């Protein structure tokens, strides 16, 4: 008999093919959860995550679902339930960035950021909670940028992540009576394709960060693992920074 802390739980991780989402999917599977993950443009990477989970003895499924497409998101939730029977843990991780000064920020980019980072999160959450019972977990991957945006050009990205912080507080009130917790993890700079530790902004980011380095996706996955577990049963409505002291 397995004694892993998420044995018998089913998790859906959006944007699980690369970066934070891939590390989160693997970590939840290590903890014993059965994991469905979505992707848009990286089927091969998504398959690699599924294969790694299966090779370690876990169960996983990759689903193509653009978070900007309402029907695709609804379908991903339905496919997860069809394959695994229910959803206990939803990790709203899929997200995109676009950076430009306000005079130059295109409406197309504005609409895309709202569609993926905000509307996609709303739809996935609304659909998933229909299948979630007592002990359910909604975990957002927001950003420290909802509270601190130290460079110009990030206003719309910060806006979307601020929306997630507010949504988290309100949702915790909606879902508390059902025994479902809702929390928002707010990472600082984490070394991924979106924000590489050797990228254009990297030196500036490190100099602002108390620990003077980028975080690793696995460090964020550790926090997801905690919030997904029974250990975090009294944590809800929280916006939790994991930023190496970026906002200290
Ligand atoms: N890295 C950081 O420093 C940092 C800091 C704070 C917050 N965050 C947040 O953390 C989350 C993950 O970021 P990351 O750094 O891991 O980014 P990443 O390296 O760019 O990976 C993004 C992941 O999301 C998926 N994705 C992108 N657009 C999608 C869409 N429309 N529908 C479904 N999936 C989509 C990608 O899938 P495909 O491979 O199929 O494209 C990929 O798996 C985002 O919400 C981001 O805002 C990141």
Automatic annotation (TrEMBL):
GO MF term list: oxidoreductase activity
Keyword Electron transport: no
Keywords: Oxidoreductase
Protein name as catalogued: Short-chain dehydrogenase/reductase SDR
Entries under InterPro entries matching the protein: KR_dom, NAD(P)-bd_dom_sf, SDR_fam
Pfam families: adh_short_C2
Domain Ketoreductase: 9-188
Sequence similarity: Belongs to the short-chain dehydrogenases/reductases (SDR) family.
Membrane-spanning segments: none
Keyword check for Oxidoreductase: yes
């Amino acid at each position: 008999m397995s004694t892993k802390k998420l044995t018998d739980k089913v998790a859906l991780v959006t944007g699980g093919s690369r970066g934070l989402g891939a590390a989160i999917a693997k970590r939840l599977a290590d903890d014993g959860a059965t994991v469905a993950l979505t992707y848009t443009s990286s089927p091969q990477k998504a398959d690699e995550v599924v294969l790694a989970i299966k090779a370690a003895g876990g169960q996983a499924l990759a689903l193509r679902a653009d978070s900007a497409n309402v029907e695709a998101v609804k379908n991903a939730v339905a496919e997860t339930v069809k394959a695994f029977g229910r959803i206990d843990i939803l990790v709203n991780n899929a997200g995109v960035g676009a950076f430009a000064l306000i005079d130059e920020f295109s409406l197309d980019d504005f609409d895309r950021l709202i569609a993926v980072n905000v509307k996609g999160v709303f739809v996935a959450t609304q659909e998933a909670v229909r299948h979630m019972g007592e002990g359910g977990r909604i975990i957002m991957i927001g950003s420290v940028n909802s509270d601190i945006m130290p460079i110009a050009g990030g206003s719309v990205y910060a806006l979307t992540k601020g929306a997630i912080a507010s949504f988290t507080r309100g949702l915790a009130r909606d879902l508390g009576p059902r025994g479902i917790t809702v929390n928002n993890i707010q990472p600082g700079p984490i070394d991924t394709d979106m924000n590489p530790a050797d990228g254009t902004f990297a030196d500036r980011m490190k100099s602002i960060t108390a620990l003077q380095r980028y975080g690793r996706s696995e460090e964020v996955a550790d926090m997801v693992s905690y919030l997904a577990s029974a250990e975090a049963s009294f944590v809800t409505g929280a916006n939790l920074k994991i930023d190496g002291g970026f906002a200290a």
